[in-house]
Specification:
- The protein is α+β, with helices and mostly antiparallel strands and 71 residues long.
- The protein has one domain: 2-Layer Sandwich (Alpha-Beta Plaits), CATH 3.30.70.
- Helix content is 24%, strand content 39%.
- Strands 2-3-1-4 form a four-stranded antiparallel beta sheet, with helices on one face.
- A hairpin with a 2-residue loop joins strand 2 and strand 3.
- The longest helix is centred in the last third of the chain and has 13 residues.
- It is globular.
């Protein structure tokens, strides 16, 4: 999976937990937190997923987000 991705986890993240995801945009929406960013390959996404598991966060969804058309 390369390109833009969006990961949703249940609940809100503390500042300390947010810091565990450098380089990602962290946005709070009702009842969830959205982590989004770019990846060069599937290994980068798996690294984020491993960190989510290690922190005991509940994964809600993982989406590859299409890039907007150029022009």
């Amino acid at each position: 999976m390369s390109g833009r991705f969006e990961i949703r986890v249940s609940g809100r993240l503390s500042d300390r937990t947010r810091a565990a995801f450098p380089g990602l945009t962290v946005e709070e929406v009702p009842a969830e937190t959205v982590l989004s960013g770019w990846s060069r390959d599937a290994d980068e996404v798996h690294t984020v997923l491993d960190r989510i598991q290690a922190l005991g966060l509940e994964l809600v969804s993982l989406l590859q987000v299409p890039e907007p058309p150029e022009g």
